[in-house]
Amino acid sequence: MAEFLMYFTNGLVIGVINAISAIGVSLIVGIMRVINFAHGELYIFAGYFSYHLSLTFGLSPILAMPLSVFFIFLIGILMERLLIRPTYGDEMYSLIITFVLSIVLQNSALLIFGPYPNKPPALISGSTQIFGLFHYGNQRLLSFGISIGILLFVFYLIKKTWFGKSVRAISQDREMASLMGIDHWRINMISFGLGAALAGSAGVIIAPIFPVTPTGSSAISLTAFVVVVLGGMGSLKGCVVGGLILGILENLGAAYVSTMYRHIFAFIILILVLVFRPWGLFGQKT
Amino acid sequence: MGRIVGSVLLAVILSMTSWALAQDTIKIGVVGPRTGPAAATGKAFEEGIAIALDHINAKGGVLGKKLEVVFEDTGGVPEKAASAFEKLATRDKVPIVVGESHSSSALAEIEVANRYKVPFIICEAWHDDITKKNYRWVFRAGPVNSGVVDFYIAPFVKENGFKKVAIVRENSDWGAGIAERTEYNMKNFGLPFVTLKVERESKDFYTELTKLKGENPDIILAYIYGTGLHFFVAQANEVGLSPKSLILDGAGPPSLWDSFWKNVGKAGDLELFISSMHEKVHLTPTSRKFWEDYKKKFGKDPSDYKTRSIYNVVLIAADAINRAKSTNNEAIVEALEKTNLEVTTGIVKFGLKQGSYEYHQWMPPMLVVQWQDQKQVVVFPKEAATGELKRGR
Amino acid sequence: MMKTWISLPLIFLLIFLPFFLSQYWLHVMIISLFYVMMASSWNLIAGYTGQISFAHAAFAGVGAYVSGMLAVNIGIPPWLGIFVGTFVASLLGVGLGYLCIRMGGIYLSLTTLGFSEILRIIITNEDRWTRGTMGLQIPGFFTEYSKMSYYFLFLIVSAVFLFILYRLIHSEMGLSFRAVLNDELAAASSGIDTIRVRILAFTISSAMAGMAGGLYGHYLMLITPDIPSLGQMFLVLAMAVIGGMGSFIGPILGAFVLEVLSEYIRIYGEYHVLLFGLVALGVARFAPEGMVGVIKKRWKVKESP
Fold first, then answer.
1. Is the ipTM of this complex over 0.90?
2. Do A134 and B197 touch (CB under 8 A)?
3. pLDDT tens across B273-328, in order?
4. Do C220 and B82 touch (CB under 8 A)?
5. Fold for domain B146-275+367-384?
6. Which residues are bridge partners to B170 per DSSP?
7. Cβ contact A118:A51 at 8 Å
């Protein structure tokens, strides 16, 4: 029982981090119909930024983390402006460009940061005994807390602010939105930046637990994509539910089926969703 | 359009056929991972090669010419390794190739060595089959799984009276081979053991460690090469498994990389690892010379013992070419079979009896070292020990 | 007229060239021909129907592993094995195509990416059968190892592929491919079953990748999960994009140029991938018709005055 709870807890923690990362993808798909294949690379870069800001430049990790996310936000805005904006309406080229970009970023990371996994300093060390049943790393518990905070913030942003209303208007009907006087170019750019920043947040949160490597990025992108398809493209609620389902399933699967097949459960879900419910759990059937 | 395509093709063809041959140096080939998860080994190799070349060229080079190396990257991946070896054989036409630190890569490379009849001295790929295949062109001056387990790891486990053994091995040829040999030894001792297979590049071992905790082993033999070992050690401490259960890194170098302490923190204390090098243990005068040359060139002590392994094989290759008095492959193999050369870890003599892994094999003596307050203490074998094994609570 | 002017000497060149090449450059030519098959067949689906599949390398992996494992475990000769591999690849192609092409472009890209990853995980973990990342050693086509024989084998198969692709593109079906690409709604209203056309193109292209992969595997005689990797996929994509997507010559040109170039810049280690990536990015952004497009433009400018 203790073991089961341990696997389940691990699943929850990974699940919320999955959700943050997936919301980043979902936001961009929902508004722009663009899949950002370089999502995982942004996540990795954030991890490396936070590593170097705190260890090479001696910043406190509490400062290094948000600063890294901010850098990723800027990179996201630049990406949108220089590469993505000219491809609007041409789905094929946006797919090609973001895929090639992912390879470019991955190899730049290899060049800049080297091939070794890097782990920024943990904010907190040691472990806590939970319900007197099992030991659990304190850093993991803290990451769980931070992730929930970020999720609440994103929901507030989308549901309650002017920005969120514009975003929702655009993803429902672009022409209508521009009639309403919404500057969709600006919203697109900021949303892309925000999507990137969410990838970055997931990166800085997880890096002290699972160190980042340049080659680890495609698995991260794929997990996010599966969550988005499972939850339904463009649905935020779907991302949270999908992220948790995937996190828990992967961890229980790894424990009771095979650790080596940890990541295959995600793709089995992907195929099942495509066969039985291609619009996802909370997506709109068109 | 045709003209442009034609001229592009012509340029390509010209460059292909006019391959310039300038031969005032002798170039030998090196294979090893310069990129990928074990790129640290490539770095260690580069350092060892630099010192070896300085040493050899200061003494007049080989056959009166300057010795140089062509270092092809394998990325630690078998197919890249095979194609790297093929390039050295067909493009650079090197008389001999040395190096390699991955068994899976080496097993692919020996096939190419055999196809093109290029002598190949392996320094750090441990799988038995590499020499057990008894290829005439393949030599190994370095550890072999069966030797490491039979003479070091298994006796270490037995003499220290461990009661329950956990074997955690990565999914590679080295991991499979060394785990199998360990199981064989444990069965002979009648010691209970449990084996877990993990992914080589895994970063999260919580699931495996939770399973292990239920088994309650007092020694964990970790056959994981690369930074994965660091995370294994750190997380074993987080789930409260170590240092109550001691961890022995069955490869060695990962416990010596600069990033080790950064990644494991306090969890690294009392961790054990296999090594063929320790600052206080100098088996030959060459070992002392290597140490001094290294400090002079790089301004620090050598840490990864693979620096010294590649240094040894470059010395062996140069010696063989000099004695063969030519770069002919047959002559070099004959010279290698008569090798009697002092290197940093002893005097190299290759086994000549066919039929087992001992053919064309020479193994240096190894040590079991423990980190005690960030200091390396040799705890096994007894005659080389610089301190006592410490157990955790 | 112009076509025969370049193609005749080219054919002679390709037939007599190998006799003047060293073993090493023969190897480069063989690998280039493999990429010609891969990039040209990927171009059929991407360049002519506008669907981006990320599973092309994965299908090559299917071809290589099916044929390789049949040879190792049951002793089926590679000559037969590659056809089984091709068949399996085309079955998977129909399945995947049927599953997601009706959902639209993004879904095909995501699913093919997922499929590549599933394949990689299975090959890596079922190491009892596949030997995972350790690599499976498989027999070659010829009892006597000869680069020359492989060169001609690859040359013949590439020629057959290119012939089929050329005929397809210039057939009625090819016209409907392009109709689908240019205007889906118009194509649909003129009675073309756009989904069936796309699934068909995807299947043919996957089958070709499967056969190319089988040939490649039995040439290397060592197969690893690198064949179906995304890195390999990127190379194929970069060749087609840089050469010129949607043109017949583009991917062929791209395959030769990039492969030969990569031999020269390989001394810089992994950075050649970065360089290709940057070039591909620039081409996709500023010259979507690739090298062929640039050459055509130049030619027209010169001829017009």
1. no
2. no
3. 998 878 777 888 998 999 999 999 999 888 888 899 999 999 999 999 999 999 99
4. yes
5. Rossmann fold (3.40.50)
6. B198
7. yes
